[in-house]
Amino acid sequence: MMDDQNSPETIMAALSTLSPPQLTDLTNSISALFHLSYRRLYSILSFPTLFNLTLHHLQSLPLQQKSLLIARHLLSNLTILTPFIMQNTTTYSASSAVKLRDLDAVILLLLLCEFRQLYPEVLETPPSHWRSVLCNYVSDDILRLSGFEASSAQVLIKYVEMVIKCKRFVSVMGAAAGGNNDGKGGIEAATSAGVVVALPSVEVSENGNLECVICKENMKRGRDVCKLPCDHLFHWMCILPWLKKKNTCPCCRFRLPTDDVFGEIERLWELLAKMGGSSIV
Questions:
Q1: Region 30-45: what's the mean pLDDT?
Q2: Rounded mean pLDDT of the chain?
Q3: Residue 201, phi then psi, degrees to nearest 5
Q4: CB within 8 A of 32, min separation 6: which ones?
Q5: Residues 104, 71: contact at Cβ < 8 Å?
Q6: Where are the domains of the chain?
Q7: What's the rounded Cα separation, in Å, for the pair 8 and 269?
């Protein structure tokens, strides 16, 4: 089911704010990812053994694990935008590397989901027939976007389509699996340990005029306190337990990076919405 949160307008508005050199850098990064994905897809469909092994791996996974596969793939693609959307905030992003086996699995899974929407009756046949049918289905797309003739516009449009498709699948599959990634937002996750360790300690310069909103006590002048990327200050003993449970500032709800895949997707998507001048409900 479509909603504003999964709308392509969110990411398109964000891309429209980039300068020509930034768009060139982004397009080159996306093209590199596409070439890797198409090489893997070509290998899967060209070799029956690899196709059967990948399909068997997929069929052995519960729905929740399939949703997590797509979520990790989505995060790895959203991370390309990190240098452009972080601006003055922290540049850290949760690890989004995808293992080759999982990459093969998610590429085939996305292809099967797309194909089922268009030709559901074909996948009712024995799996031994699927490989040849899928080869014919993707051949034109692979040749068009893996060749040198692909324009920057084609690459960016294909990227937006892929990101939105993954986000919708994650929302629908996560809801069906009973997870908390139902696309409604509000995911609570702990702040990444790497981010917490890197938070700066600053000395309070004002004399008793600053209050820690967690304990409601004033910060004494000369005391070392924690400074979040949003510039709000807290006692270290107060903010550390908070960050072990949440990745938001207690004052302004600014989101810090998290190692939770779904929480990090939501954080980056909110940054995209702000970058494009829109908001996510």
A1: 89
A2: 83
A3: -105, 125
A4: none
A5: no
A6: 4-184+260-275, 193-243
A7: 11
Across-strand partners of 227? 233
* C-alpha to C-alpha distance for 70 and 67, rounded to whole angstroms: 5
How many other CB atoms are there within 10 angstroms of residue 117's CB atom? 9
The residue ranking higher by pLDDT, 139 or 265, is: 265
- pTM, two decimal places: 0.81
Q: What is the pLDDT of residues 213-250, one digit of tens each?
A: 999 998 888 889 999 999 999 999 999 999 999 999 99
Torsion of CA 240, 85, 82, 86, to 10 degrees: -30
207-227 core/surface letters (b: 16 or more CB in 10 A; e: else): eeebebeeeeeebeeeeebbe
Q: Which of the four pLDDT bands, split at 50, 70 and 90, describes residue 276?
A: confident
Architecture of domain 193-243: 2-Layer Sandwich (3.30)
